[in-house]
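From the pipeline queue, job 12 of 40. The input is one protein chain; the requested action is below.

Action: predict structure.
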Amino acid sequence: MKAHDYLLEQMNWPTIKEKMEAGMDTVIICTASVEQHGYHLSELTDTIIGQATGILVAEKLGNALVAPVIRPGLSEHHIPMVGSLTLRSEVYRGIIEDYVTCYKRHGFKKVIIFSSHGGNFNENEKIVKNLQEIHPEIQFSSALSLMGLMELMTQFEKKFGLVEGSCGHGGAMETSVMLHIAPDQVDMDKATPGYIGPMTEDVLNKLFENGIVGLTEVGILGDPRQAKPEWGEYFLDLLSDEIVKAVKKDFRLLGSEYRR
């Protein structure tokens, strides 16, 4: 199946209705960002990656459709670099809540909310918890945690023999994914490494408290120069597999068997 078979925004309403009547009762909502990604990637990077991930997750689940990606996100730590956008947390929360309200009215029974941008994760967990209380008849999954994503990035580094810390914001992993799905948004001649090192809790706290400029003038966490499109294909498959596992676990815990 092709992307337009899963993307709600590319369907007409009778098609959506037919798919829901055929058992597609789950909607996938990705929250992304519009923010700087160094010298070599466009500011749409997280949105592009988020949509591609959502499509793969929908395909692997078998009964899910993908909502329009929510962006901008929570990107205060990137604001010092021009073009980056950030929402107030209450506005961001309101957009997600309104998405869910609309899809509930349309008849969706399960909602998956995941993020393709690190700055959204903590808020998403709070939002999902609150949504479960507001809409007890809907089943929710917040999919992969930030720490879970970081573990996948570590796995990526080890598999391809990269230095620890090569795969942060705009680094080898994101650049590889973009080379795979949107090479026109990548200028490898301008790929420049930024902060390279373990993403410890202290480093993350410094990032979110002082902004990315507190770690790097380039705006990159990691080293994009070694990126390869085939590595991006590998990571997208790995990421979507892990999201599917997390979603199925969440829905089983909520008392629903999730079919493949």
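Job complete. Strands lie at 26-31, 64-66, 110-115, 139-141.
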